[in-house]
């Protein structure tokens, strides 16, 4: 066993892609993903204004827009056409059109409409802009109604405010309270990328045996034992990668962690085994590295879309739900999100852990396949 392990470590050092995928490349990808979303919260998103009223009230409305931390009034445009051109060109994320007679109609008790156009192709940015605009306009409306109520006889400001805003909202986020995009996206993106790295690396490691001396010579008289020993170093290296990932996010960066570390680490270990088992099936049943890589890419690349973080799983069609269930990262992320946010107990995490354990069936398939291959006189690739 020691000889086989030493042989595998030597192979990792000799194969540049294996060395990269088991050491620095995944860590570099993790760092890049974190750096992209490190700011956490979208601020000062540029918006444009077309002020057709040029009144004191319209200028006050613009100040409310600019005072919101999410928005920054980047430019004024003399016409809707020029503002629309800037919006389509990507210079601004939203265009506010303040109508003529805004102040006059407001004083007359009418309801003038300030129109806002925003680019909803950028879903997160679009929602942030929309929320900020509604908040700014709601604040101004409340102020106007309060002053109007005071002018009509409500001398107590608190009473006038109560008439302007009869029902107030108390919205309290329970998890990710500051809407940090890093905690929302990075914590899901990294496991999805990690899953791809594990599957691809395992396929490369298995194909290296075919290139060097053939599968039959490598498998020998104990094919299952040789397969397990071969993958042991990679299991260790992948587990270390996962340990670094959660230690940095929930330790060094001090992101909230309300659950138990050992449950999360156990889920990571099961995910590594599940991904390795999937890779073994893809390669050993095709015996072609190119085909196996193509299948692995098609299987794992869309993982982020199916894990249910950016789009609710409850609204996915049946095909998406089936694909979602076949991805190890899906079940691992369920454990991770419930641990860091909700602090679920082991009993509550058991269903998802059992789903990860079910992927060990792929190891049984791989064991049966290598046993058969070891008895074949010549393995064709």
Automatic annotation (TrEMBL):
<keyword id="KW-1003">Cell membrane</keyword>
<protein>
    <submittedName>
        <fullName>Multidrug ABC transporter permease</fullName>
    </submittedName>
</protein>
<feature type="transmembrane region" description="Helical">
    <location>
        <begin position="184"/>
        <end position="206"/>
    </location>
</feature>
<feature type="transmembrane region" description="Helical">
    <location>
        <begin position="21"/>
        <end position="42"/>
    </location>
</feature>
<feature type="transmembrane region" description="Helical">
    <location>
        <begin position="292"/>
        <end position="313"/>
    </location>
</feature>
<dbReference type="InterPro" id="IPR051449">
    <property type="entry name" value="ABC-2_transporter_component"/>
</dbReference>
<keyword id="KW-0472">Membrane</keyword>
<feature type="transmembrane region" description="Helical">
    <location>
        <begin position="227"/>
        <end position="253"/>
    </location>
</feature>
<feature type="domain" description="ABC-2 type transporter transmembrane">
    <location>
        <begin position="16"/>
        <end position="367"/>
    </location>
</feature>
<dbReference type="GO" id="GO:0140359">
    <property type="term" value="F:ABC-type transporter activity"/>
</dbReference>
<dbReference type="GO" id="GO:0005886">
    <property type="term" value="C:plasma membrane"/>
</dbReference>
<feature type="transmembrane region" description="Helical">
    <location>
        <begin position="259"/>
        <end position="285"/>
    </location>
</feature>
<dbReference type="InterPro" id="IPR013525">
    <property type="entry name" value="ABC2_TM"/>
</dbReference>
<feature type="transmembrane region" description="Helical">
    <location>
        <begin position="349"/>
        <end position="366"/>
    </location>
</feature>
<keyword id="KW-0812">Transmembrane</keyword>
<dbReference type="Pfam" id="PF12698">
    <property type="entry name" value="ABC2_membrane_3"/>
</dbReference>
<keyword id="KW-1133">Transmembrane helix</keyword>
